[in-house]
Amino acid sequence: MAETKPTATVAASKSTTSVQPKKSGNSISWLAPLACVILGFLIWRFILGDASGFKKPDLTGGFMPDHQDPKGTWSRMYTGGIIVPILIGTLLTVLTFVVERFMTVSKAAGTGSIAEFVRKVQYNLANKDVDKAIAECDKQKGSVGSVMKAGLRKYKEMISNTELDTEQKVLNIQKEVEEATALELPMLEKNLVFLSTIASIATLMGLLGTVMGMIRSFSSLGEAGGAEASAKLSVGISEALYNTALGIGTSAISIVFYNIFTTRIDAITYGIDESGFTLTQSFAANYK
Q1: Positive or negative torsion for Cα 142, 148, 153, 156
Q2: Each residue of 30-44: pLDDT tens digit?
Q3: Distance between the two ends of the chain, CA-based, in angstroms?
Q4: Any residues with CB less than 8 A from the CB of 40 and at least 6 apart, and which?
Q5: Is residue 271 part of a domain?
Q6: Alpha carbon distance 185, 30 (integer Å)
Q7: Which range marks the domain in which residue 212 is found?
Q8: For an engineered disulfide with 149, which of 47, 63, 137, 235 has Cβ 3.0 to 4.6 Å away?
Q9: Please, are residues 275 and 144 in contact by the beta-carbon 8 Å criterion?
């Protein structure tokens, strides 16, 4: 008779996570920039480039009319060239993602002070009232509350577990918190790359538009002479500098809001880290 080997038994107490990945599309990340660039061109072509804003309009210009002698500031911006609508599109993209990130980060921050929320949970855990601590998470309604709630469910499960020692239970709670954190943080940081990228390239795009405008201005010197050449050059330089102004302004807005959002996300991340530390330390102290 062949010798039979005992099969390894899997502990009935093997931890399973209750954390479920969040389902959320990110179609805005590729639709928004494309739509904004198209809208930027429409603004440049039909609003800034409206024929009524020029003394010598080009009524047969089609895609990019060569209007001359702008009457006002907005019309002069049109003469800055084809880089202008791209810069307008990047500015609109920045504003779109500022609104989108503001809504997301505000929701993730939840209600009330994160520090006060953590203190209330610590108080309830010190009194071994896990249900009240979970109720506080429901009131918080933010990322810190979501991570804390996932950890508290595992915390409550480990209290009644008789097959693991305290160290193993603490590790299970810590693992649950880490998995919940791994699902929350990408939602907070999503689309910030657009703000950081535009902050870097908007100024360069503005300078590119300015250089192209300067090339056009100096090339026109060969077609005119005397005072007329000087006048055309000064007007051309003025129009070209609209690119630089628009690029620098777009870059500045991107940098300011990028720093605002990263600061708020850092505060939320700190609250998540503190909540995980609170759970593990509380369990290790109360259920030795």
Answers
A1: negative
A2: 888 999 999 999 999
A3: 48
A4: 85, 86, 87, 88, 89, 90, 91, 92
A5: yes
A6: 21
A7: 29-48+71-220+229-286
A8: 137
A9: yes
